[in-house]
Amino acid sequence: MAIKYSELVIEHFKNPHNVGTIDKPDASATEGSPACGDQLTVYLKVNSETQIIEDIKFQSYGCASNIATASIITDLAMGRNIEAAKQITWKQAADELGGLPPIKMHCSVLAVDALRSAIKNWEHKHLGKEIDDSLNKKNIVKELQKVIYGQVGVDIVSLKLLKYIGVDEKNNVLLELAIKKDDPFLDDVKNEINERMEKFPKIASVKISLV
Ligand code: FES
Question: Which atom of ligand 1 is nearest to the CA of 64?
Fold first, then answer.
């Protein structure tokens, strides 16, 4: 079945804003989507006194939805200070585009992920902020908020599909999901969780059980 896109998605896909690279950017980041394997790079020029994003560009190796959401989030971030730019969400990006098909929501997550990582890198380089990749519940939840349940296009945390998160003394992560074992989206969710957990250098293993 053909996927139906809003007119705005098609417009931003055909004529994306802020495409390209920045010569000597103040920071950049490339992120990949565990859901589909596509990639996006975001480049930033930030005024170090005002912390305002004075230029932002992106290069996408993703689909139409990803190009459209990268186009809209770079529009939203341009001229904002970094604190305000960090507040842009994938849901907001999708709403600004008149919605995305549920199965394509992860493309918007990729766009926001790349923007936030570029900002993190800027803060690390210019403000000396540590990049926090410690294995704790708070950081695990942050990663799991990016895992979309494709049937409805909402993340597994908001949908309350995550019933338990534990980290034992050997750094094994234990998760319980309220998804039926014959759910057609279960494998996608599990695979994406496993890939997202790879972000934590100290993790020993991930065990996912169903309740
Ligand atoms: Fe990969 Fe959209 S399908 S970014």
Answer: 2
